[in-house]
Amino acid sequence: MNIVFSVGTSSGGPIGGLMADFFGWRWSFGIQIPLIVVSLLVTFRSHIPQDNTSTSGIMERLKRVDFAGAFLLV
């Protein structure tokens, strides 16, 4: 994870600059849409282990999510 983050952080500026020089700055926003779609598909298709010990409903599962922490990260 750290390697992917480092590569993305260090190559984002130069790649964005090259895109802005060759295609225009508007493409910087348009290219994100396919990347978002791909990341959503990978996220939804990934295997997330389920808690088989309890048969809790959706409200019980939502109580386990740290929404304040997720909001602060965003």
Q: Briefly, what is this?
A:
The chain is an all-alpha fold. It has a domain of 45 residues.
Question: Could you characterize the architecture of this molecule?
Answer:
By secondary structure, the protein is an all-alpha fold. The protein has a domain at 1-45. It has 5 helices and no strands. The longest helix is centred in the N-terminal third of the chain and has 21 residues, at 2-22. It is elongated, with a radius of gyration of 18 Å. The relative contact order is 0.05.
Averaging pLDDT over every residue, what do you get?
83
Tell me how many strands there are: 0
Which segments are poorly predicted (pLDDT under 50) over 5 or more consecutive residues? none
| Radius of gyration over all CA atoms, rounded | 18 Å
Explain the layout of strands and helices.
Layout: H1 2-22, H2 27-30, H3 32-45, H4 58-63, H5 67-73
Structure characteristics:
74 residues; elongated; mainly alpha
